[in-house]
Amino acid sequence: MKKLTTIIFAALAICFGLTTETFAQYVTAEFMTYGADGTTLNKVRMDQPGVPYSNGVDGVSAQFFTGGSRDLVIRLDGSRTRTAVFDFTEVSSYINAPAWIYSNPLQSFKPQMNVLQAYYAKENCQPDLNGVYNCNFITRTNAGYLYAGGDRATYALLWNPETTNPRPVNSPEKTSFVKVNYQKDSLGRDVFTITPLPNCATRENNFTCAADIPQRVIAGLEKTSGRTVSSAGQYVMPFTLVVRPK
């Protein structure tokens, strides 16, 4: 049955001229060193500042899955040369933190990073009266397949206060939601800017924070060792990811 389905899909693809790009939009993606204020150091950064990850270059996969989930997926696990720097120096909770948090909190990982349903920021966007596109979509982000030297466990880092299955990342604090901002630049090209919100921004308060509440971006670290999944601490982890279609 699976083989028959594959044959039918292939025939439809030939008939209608469908390609993989029909269901995916390839992109470049760049973690910015500093936040919007120009002074706050982001905690997920490029291995080569100013050199974006580009789909199909150096073994990088970077694409929106426009025909299905609408997720943005960036994969560095297939690259021999590209990594991302994860900075765990600002700890929110040391509960179950792995040893490398203390000895080597700057890690170069080859993550699979998934910004859930990110493409809806564009699909749901309508221009204002001046024809300007500037829309936000609130979602969640998971970065998995993180391997630290000398540690046989696998880790995942989540900005995801609404995990769809029980994952031990939202204690003692809830982790942060993520905002996807969609705009068109001066040349009419799409630009997506992805930033986590402070974890005080929740659905209940319409994703805003009271002025007197500390505003921190919190991500939770998850450890998988064999069949055992456990929490591995929480960390202050702001990032700014700028994505442009190729």
Question: Can you describe this structure?
Answer:
- This protein has 246 residues and is mainly beta.
- The protein has one domain (27-245).
- Helix content is 11%, strand content 36%.
- The chain contains four helices and 17 strands.
- The chain has helices at 2-16, 20-23, 99-103, 120-123; strands at 25-31, 44-46, 53-54, 61-64, 72-75, 84-87, 91-93, 106-109, 112-115, 134-139, 141-146, 154-159, 178-184, 190-196, 218-225, 228-236, 241-245.
- Strands 1, 3, 4, 5, 7, 9, 10, 11, 12, 13, 14, 15, 16 and 17 form a 14-stranded antiparallel β-sheet that branches. A three-stranded antiparallel β-sheet has the order 2-6-8, with no helix packed on it.
- Strand 15 and strand 16 form a beta hairpin.
- The longest helix has 15 residues, at 2-16.
- The chain is globular and about 55 Å long.
- It starts with a helix and ends with a strand.
